[in-house]
Amino acid sequence: MTRRFRLPAEWEAQAGILIAWPHAGTDWAPRLAQVETAYVGLVGAIARFEPVLVCVADALVRDRAAQLLASAGVDAARLRFVEVAYDDTWLRDSGPLTLTDGADFRLVDFRFTGWGGKFEGGRDDRLIEALVARGVFGSAAHRRIDWALEGGAIESDGKGTILTTWRCLQQRHPQMSREEMSALLETSFDADRVLWLDRGYLEGDDTDAHIDTLARFAPDDAIVFQTCDDPADPHYDELARMHEEIASLRTADGRPYRLCPLPWARAIVDEGRRLASSYANYLIVDGGVVMPAYGDTADARAAQVIAAAHPGREVVMVDARPLIWQNGSVHCLTMQLPAGSLAA
Questions:
Q1: Model confidence, pTM
Q2: Which of 291, 275, 273, 302 lies closest to 334 in space, CA to CA?
C-alpha cells in the first residue's frame, strides 16, 4: 500500500521550532537590543514546551544568543544552535514546509523571493539547502520547487485542505489563474483542495496578506480569524467581508467551520507608520500556544479565544511590539518541525 505524504496541521506533535537569531547584519540592526529582548522572551516561551533550533550567522552571534538566553534562565538543554547564512529572520517564509507519510519526511523548498522582490533574499532562498547540508534533518528528502511561495501564505488542516489568500499568490504569480495555482498547491502538498480568501489585509504587513496574519485552522474544524470592531478603522469593512467569506467556507464533508473571531487591538503607530498587530499570528507548540501581545486590553480576550480554539494547551503571551516594527510577529519568525523530522 502506498503511503501518502501530507502537510501536518500545526497542532500535531512536533520535534522542535526553528528560528534565526537577529544580528547587526539584519534589518533589526537599528533596534537590535530591543528585539533581542523580545527574542529572549519568545525563545524562552517556546523552550518551556519543546526544543528550539536556533540559526546563528557565526560564532559571535551564537555566543551572544546563548549568553542572553542563559541570563534569562532559558534551559540550555532545550536549545540547539546551527551556524548558517541568512538575510533576515522570518523563517516562517524561508524555512522548510515538512510533509510526512507517518514514517518518512519530505522538506518542500519553494523559491523565496523576498516577498515578491521587495527585499533581498538570496541567502534565505538557500537556507533549507544549507540546513540539509549540515545534517539537521537526518534522512528527510529535500524537494526543491521552482515556484515562489512563503510558508506564511498557507494553512493546512492536516487532512488535505489548504487555506490561502488570492491577494498574496496573485501578486507572486499574476500570469497564473486560480485554478492553475490550486492544482500546483494540491500537487506540491498532496492535498485534496485549496480554499481561497479574496478579502482581508492589514496595514503594516508587507507580505501581501499572508493567511497567517488573518485566519488560522484549529482542531475540530475551526477557523480562528482576526476581526475589527471599530467602524472608524480602515480595516473594518475589509475584515467584515473576510468574516463573511470564512462563514461561507465548508469542510471537506460539507459542514460549516466553527468560527472563532479574535478581538481587535488599538492601532500601534511607529514613526507615523501603522503596524500590523494581529492576534492571528500565534504559534502552536506541544502543549501550548505562544501568542503575540500588544499591551492592549484586548490581549486577554484574544488569549481566551485562542485557548478555547486549542483546548488543553496553555496560552503564553509574549510582547510582540518590538517585532511588528519589522512587519511580522510570532508566527512569522518561527517554523515548526514535525515530530521525528530532526536528526538526533
A1: 0.97
A2: 291
